[in-house]
Amino acid sequence: MKKRRKTIRPEAIALLAILLCTVVICLIIVIKKDPVSPMTDPTGESPVTGAQTSGQEAVPVITAPEEISVRAVTGGAWEQDDPQDLLALASAADETGKSYPVTLEGEYDLSKAGVYALSYVITDNHGSRIEKALRLTVLASPFAADGTLIDGEYITDNGHSLAIKGGLAYVDGYLLVNKSYSVPEGFSSTGDCTRSMVPEVMEAFQRMRNAAPASIRANITIRSGVRNIADQTVIFNNYVRNDGLENALTYSARPRYSEHHTGLAMDILTSSAEESKQPATAAVLDWLNKNAWKYGFIQRYPENKTEETGYIYEPWHYRYVGTELAEALYNNGDWITMETYFGVDSFYHTAYSS
Ligand SMILES: [Zn+2]
After folding, report:
1. Bridge pairing between strands 114-123 and 129-139
2. Ligand 1: centre distance to CA 51 (Å)
3. Which of 17, 65, 292, 349 could join 147 in a cystine, given CB atoms 3.0 to 4.6 angstroms apart?
4. Residue 74: pLDDT above 80?
5. How many angstroms does the Cα of residue 271 sit away from the middle of ligand 1?
6. Ligand 1 centroid vs 147 CA: distance in angstroms?
7. Distance from residue 194's CA to the centre of ligand 1 (Å)
């Protein structure tokens, strides 16, 4: 029987070897050309397009905000951090680092509330326009040029509603008194100068007092409740006389700017920083700090919040706001100030005259 033997010719082996080498070389070239696939780009940036496809052409890009909100400027009395030099917020450059002059097109008026559609514009190397839209919102200001309040409806810096009615400020319906928002001349919380707390506040205060452990309860007393404007004038002037105006302003309100006018605020047990550190007093203040929110009271001037409230730490000063807001501001023990929560400031917009 004839046996057919399959033999592999040397030519075939050589061909196979050449083929294999070609595949390997091709693979190496592909990997070298694209060491990092765009899908796994560690920088997270999408692959550059456009700028590289047009030969050596560099495409300038405008870097600028798309949206800005500023408060209307009223006679320079509004001391704001809001950016007013809109051009300074924009720049333009291409990837070679060359920068391009930016202009701002469109009309706007920083003293008039409204929404303005503007454009940052640059001209590229071929004289073509490149633009980027800017939506500028100028919010109405509740302050007149002399810093006094103007009755009306406003929006706060973080979008809460602010109403000035009869010279009183209400944010989402909550009466607000601080260095920016005063009570009007002749104001009295009850209308008859009886110097009594608002009844709802007294009821909440009694509930809180009854809930406290016996050792604390007897010491939950109102050291200072309602003060009328005349009271505050005497108190403030005394501080100024003894401690100087600058110091007095850090802990005492100018007449018409004290929360004590409202019948919603009280100093409990003490009004003194020194006294508040004594163990018996500190124990009461500590209980209040942890529990007052359950009865609708907030610590109005918490520690390390002077920049927000305008006042130094006053662990004795409580303000009634109701349980809903009190719980939000208590924030599990990390107090949020009314100013930060509502997006309002606290500094004197009006000049002081004794
Ligand atoms: Zn007080």
Report:
1. antiparallel
2. 64
3. 349
4. no
5. 7
6. 24
7. 18
pLDDT tens for 275-300 read: 999 999 999 999 999 999 999 999 99
- Cα of 13 to ligand 1 centre, how many Å? 98
Token pair 């109102």 is at which residue?
222
Report the pLDDT averaged over residues 43-57: 46
Q: How far is residue 219's CA from residue 7's CA, in Å, rounded to a whole number?
A: 110
Which of 297, 295, 310, 313 is CA-nearest to residue 340?
310
Q: How far is the CA of 337 from the centre of ligand 1 (A)?
A: 15
Q: What is the pLDDT of residue 7?
A: 52
CB 300 within 8 A of CB 318: yes
pLDDT of residue 190: 57
| Ligand 1 center to 311 CA (angstroms) | 10
Characterise 328 by phi-psi region: left (phi > 0), alpha (psi -120 to 50), beta (else): alpha
Domain boundaries defined on the chain? 61-139, 189-342
Encode pLDDT of 151-175 as tens digits: 999 999 888 999 999 999 999 999 9
Q: What is the pLDDT of residue 104?
A: 95
- Kind and range of the H or E element at 312? none
Q: How far is the CA of 226 from the centre of ligand 1 (A)?
A: 9
Kindly give the distance from the C-alpha atom of residue 252 to the centroid of ligand 1, in angstroms, as a whole number.
8
User: What class is the 189-342 domain?
Assistant: alpha beta
CA of 214 to the centre of ligand 1 (A): 25
Distance in Å, CA 172 to ligand 1 centroid: 23
Residue 2 has pLDDT above 70, yes or no: no
The yes/no answer on whether domain 61-139 falls in CATH 3.50.50.60 is no
Distance 315 CA to ligand 1 centre (A): 9
| 324/331 Cα distance (integer angstroms) | 11
What gap in Å lies between CA 327 and CA 317, rounded to an integer?
Answer: 17
